[in-house]
Design a protein that fits this description.
Elements lengths: L2 E9 L7 E7 L2 H14 L4 E9 L11
Antiparallel strand pairs: 1-2, 1-3
Length: about 60
Amino acid sequence: MRNAYVVTMRRYGDREKHSYIIGVFTNEWRATVAGSTEENMRGGKYSADIEKFRLNEVPEIVEDI
């Protein structure tokens, strides 16, 4: 199976504050570079959160929202 890396920017690293997705990548290194670049462009107000998913598979743990 192929992996997907979702890069979400979180204001001050807090999940409860404003956040936005900057991209979905199939390469972890590219996801990391994109997140670091966006952190620098936003002056440190946002932190990159990179989550790994496997394509076409249901996650093992599903949290209720």
